[in-house]
Amino acid sequence: MTDAGFRQTILRAIRLTAIVAALGIPLLWWKLGWQSAVYMVVGAGISASGLYEWLQLMTAVMRRMDVPAEGGEPVKVRMVTPVLLGFFMRMGLAVAVLYAILKTLDGSVYALVGGLLLGVIALSIEAFRMMRLWTV
Description:
With 136 residues, this protein is mainly alpha-helical. The protein is 84% helix and 0% strand. The protein contains 4 helices and no strands.
């Protein structure tokens, strides 16, 4: 898998997360109330932002590992420190948002867990797509 292929896989997983969340939020609002819909929005947002941060982190790491061709121009790499700082800041923000909504809203925690699992499910679907392409 190339760097571009990895990037496309993660972007497809983020898009799938957004689509499933957009379809599930009105259903949750109708069946369980607006608080549960907000839980799903927060869970899906954290999940999608986590996928995006992993994309940034892996891109920075892979660029540092690239070896220039013989006699070629060295590749200009981005420092990993800002990417790691952003990663940990996003994690801290996610914990703060989770704490705030769990303290203030009375919705279904299952909606929150479902939103958080959307990223894992989307990545699993992308992995199955890749496996199918390899075996055909």
